[in-house]
Write a structure and sequence with these properties.
The chain contains 25 helices and 17 strands. The longest helix is centred in the middle third of the chain and has 18 residues, at about 235-255. With about 600 residues, it is of the alpha+beta class. The strands form three sheets. Strands 2-3-1-9-8-10 form a six-stranded antiparallel β-sheet. Helix 7 (about 235-255) crosses helix 8 (about 270-280) and helix 23 runs antiparallel to helix 24 (about 580-590). It comes from Formosa maritima. Its EC number is 6.3.5.4.
């Protein structure tokens, strides 16, 4: 895993001097501390690269890298797990080393950009320049595992691994805040692709190629997108579990490719434990890493220890109480190179810090909940499916009757939403409408960006259709926030994190399986649970999904109170149109325990820090 920066000028705008360019590149130093590369590819194009050496740690893997015939120059961040298979398909035998970057350059000359990226199985963000056509292309992996930001003002293009690199460039440093994107951030607690918080700043979508030519024309091509309603062909549980087992083993085996020490996160949950069972088959000496806490509600380290012992994996556990964890707050917040309000970044940062002491690559269980319906919200929306299509008055009557007359609740408050998509989006937003209007009154009449249609779907009476549609929304919605969090936390520790559940093979098999086998009343991620119990029957099945959390509500009333008060009340609020008195009221309401406002307060903190 690495970090890069590229600047492409299509007009007479003067390029940054090398010294200034390298200062911007240095912002992503932790993404690649092993070495640095720079290339003035043309008078109007310069590229820089910070390398975290994983495959072929020799100079043969250094970037920026040119293709054999010098048609293409590339900076590439990520890993391609099938690159050795691709080499077998290429009529080429003059490789200088065994890096996946070199494989990509040969593929580009043989197949062109679109066919090349469609053939890649891995996680990646890359900038590719074609010296013959003078076109520069930005490419992001199909699942959005690696981020790719850019600024474009029709004169200068700046592409980078981190958002702060883009908005620190002279062409974009004074850009105003985009009010539509600001509202989206406050509602979703991160900035999803293709948007940037400031005007003229953007992100490449998962599975997208964005190409710029020398005349300043920009083109978008979506080379891959998760299907919404693919008809399932596997409708039997035992068959589905067999497919999941074999494909997961294959994906993990592929992702063990590394020339440096490799391990895995082990939380005690279903997904990371399943990854552990597959690792054991192919990497007998693999190490796993666990964070433990003093919270009886959220700590899963004991369960993780049971799995590690059953698999005979080398486990390192770092137990921290709340006070100890808090001492790493400032350190973890440095990882926020963009607004991203997920306070579980602290435990993610800590487990990455722990793993980095012994390995450079770690496998994670992210993606399992989205592909195999592990979240409660799939059922929260689904249980209302019989009544969601009714008029508003009838829905309100059904909800009221059920709430006050029955003990076995058949519906929930999600029913009050007009659309299932609206209900789904509402489950993700912790910044209530009345708080948002008080803090940011100028945003009251501002609409969300039209291009943001993740939750734009309407009602369906078919439970399979609903689950598949919700999976699509999760994939391009909150999963992107989770991936961003993990990327920020791990890269701040110079640790590469791989996600086998988001391997192409795993995504494809998940789409082939009837979703009702995994999700339903009292069923969450049932197929994965069955596979795990089959592999490790000695560990009792998980009854309640815990998830690692931190006592932020308490911290905001105690240790973090001075920090949040200072940051939120002393910050320059004018770029955002925020009301200082409203923020002060939120702080007071939380401090006096009138309401738990940790989410809106942290959302503001992550923006203003």
């Amino acid at each position: 895993m690495c970090g890069f920066l590229a600047e492409y000028n299509v007009s007479s705008v003067k390029a940054l001097e090398k010294k200034a360019f390298l200062r911007l590149l240095e912002l992503s130093h932790t993404r690649g501390p092993d070495s640095q590369g720079y290339l003035l590819a043309e008078s109007y194009l310069q590229m820089g690269f910070n390398r975290l050496a994983i495959l072929d740690t020799s100079d043969a893997g250094q970037q920026p890298m040119q293709s054999p015939n010098k048609k293409y120059t590339i900076v590439f961040n990520g890993e391609i797990y099938n690159h050795l298979d691709l080499r077998k398909k290429l009529d080429f035998n003059r490789y200088r080393g065994h890096s996946d970057t070199e494989t990509i350059t040969v593929c580009l000359e043989a197949w062109g950009i679109e066919r090349t990226v469609q053939a890649l199985n891995g996680m990646f963000a890359m900038t590719i320049f074609n010296h013959e056509t003078r076109e520069l292309s930005l490419v992001r992996d199909f699942a959005g595992i690696k981020p790719l930001f850019f600024g474009w003002d029709c004169k200068t293009l700046v592409a980078a691994s981190q958002y702060d690199q883009v908005i620190s460039h002279p062409s974009f440093v004074n850009k105003s805040v985009n009010s539509q994107v600001l509202k989206l951030y406050l509602q979703q607690h991160f900035v999803p692709a293709p948007f940037g918080l400031h005007e003229d700043t953007y992100q490449v979508l998962p599975g997208e190629i964005v190409t710029f030519n020398s005349k300043g024309v920009k083109e978008h091509l979506r080379y891959w997108e998760l299907p919404v309603n693919q008809k399932p062909i596997i409708t039997n549980s035992s068959e589905a579990e067999s497919h999941i087992e074999s494909i997961l083993d294959s994906c993990v085996q592929n992702q063990l490719l590394s020339d440096v020490p490799l391990g895995a996160f082990l939380s005690g949950g279903v997904d990371s434990s399943l990854i552990g069972t597959s690792i054991k088959k192919y990497h007998n000496k693999a190490q796993v890493f666990t964070i433990g806490s003093d919270s009886k509600i959220h700590d899963e380290s004991l369960r993780a220890k049971q799995f590690a012992e059953a698999l005979e994996l080398q486990q390192t556990i770092w137990n921290l109480n709340a006070k100890e964890m808090l001492t790493y707050w400032d350190e973890a917040m440095k990882a926020l190179h963009e607004p991203m309000a997920d306070f579980s970044i602290l435990p993610s940062y800590l487990v990455s810090k722990l793993a980095k002491k012994k390995v450079t690559v770690a496998l994670s269980g992210d993606g399992g909940d989205e592909l195999f319906f592990g979240y409660e919200r799939f059922w929260s929306v689904g249980k209302n499916i019989t009544y969601q299509h009714q008029p508003e008055l009838i829905r309100k009557a059904i909800y009221g009757f059920d709430k006050y007359t029955t003990s076995n609740k058949r519906v929930n408050s999600v029913l009050l939403s007009k659309r299932q998509g609206e209900a789904h989006q509402g489950l993700h937003s912790r910044f209530r409408k009345e708080w948002l209007e008080a803090v940011a009154p100028e945003l009251s009449d501002v609409s969300l960006p039209k291009a943001y249609q993740v939750y734009g779907y309407n009602n369906t009476k078919d439970p399979r259709d609903l689950l598949q549609t919700m999976r699509h929304a999760e994939f391009y919605g909150m999963m992107q926030k989770t991936l961003r969090k993990v990327d920020l936390a791990s890269m701040e520790n110079s640790l590469e994190v791989r996600v086998p559940f988001l391997d192409k093979q795993m995504i494809e098999v998940s789409l082939q399986i009837d979703p009702l086998l995994s999700s339903g009343k009292n069923k969450r991620k049932q197929l994965l649970k069955n596979v795990l119990h089959k592999r490790i029957p000695s560990v009792p099945e998980e009854t309640v999904k815990k998830g690692f959390s931190i006592p932020l509500s308490t911290w905001l009333r105690e240790d973090l109170k001075p920090l949040f008060t200072e940051r939120l009340l002393d910050a320059d609020l004018s770029p955002y149109g925020f009301e200082r008195s409203a923020i002060e009221k939120l702080l007071k309401m939380h401090d006096t325990k009138q309401q738990d406002l940790k989410w809106p307060l942290f959302t503001l903190y992550a923006l203003l820090k």
